[in-house]
């Protein structure tokens, strides 16, 4: 369920609302009790966040050992 916030409060607390939206929250802005707008996280921002997470995970992967490296390790007594 989206949190409802009046237009005056939305205006005065916009930086805080944007930080919360960036964190994944959604809001419905009302004017005199009537819903007039939904503020939701950007789809593009979500895609960028997912891509950044994937890139970080790929950096953490250990590189695969080739057959040649494995044979070299074995000849050195490391395998």
Could you explain how this protein is built, in words?
There is one protein chain. With 79 residues, this protein is an alpha+beta fold. It has one domain: YefM-like fold. Helix content is 53%, strand content 19%. The protein has helices at residues 7-12, 14-22, 43-60, 67-75, and strands spanning 3-6, 27-31, 34-39. Strands 1-2-3 form a 3-stranded mixed sheet. A hairpin with a 2-residue loop joins strand 2 and strand 3. The longest helix is centred in the middle third of the chain and has 18 residues, at 43-60. It is rod-shaped and about 80 Å long. It starts with a strand and ends with a helix. The mean pLDDT is 90.
**N- to C-terminal distance:** 56 Å
Helix amount: 40-55%
CATH superfamily (homologous) name: YefM-like domain
Mean pLDDT: 90
Structural class, by secondary structure, is: alpha+beta
State the domain count.
Answer: 1
Q: List the strand order in the largest sheet.
A: 1-2-3
Per CATH, what is the topology?
Answer: YefM-like fold
Question: Which CATH class applies here?
Answer: Alpha Beta
Shape: rod-shaped
Strand content: 15-25%
Please count the helical segments. 4
The largest β sheet comes out as: 3 strands, mixed
Order of helices and strands: EHHEEHH
Give a count of the beta strands, DSSP E runs of length 2 or more.
3
Low-confidence stretches: none
């Amino acid at each position: 369920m989206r949190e409802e916030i009046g237009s005056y409060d939305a205006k005065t607390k916009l930086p805080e609302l944007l930080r919360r939206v960036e964190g994944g929250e959604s809001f419905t802005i009302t004017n005199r009790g009537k819903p007039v707008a939904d503020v939701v996280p950007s789809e593009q921002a979500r895609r960028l966040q997912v891509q950044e997470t994937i890139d970080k995970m790929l950096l953490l992967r250990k590189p695969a050992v080739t057959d040649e490296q494995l044979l070299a390790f074995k000849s050195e007594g490391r395998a």
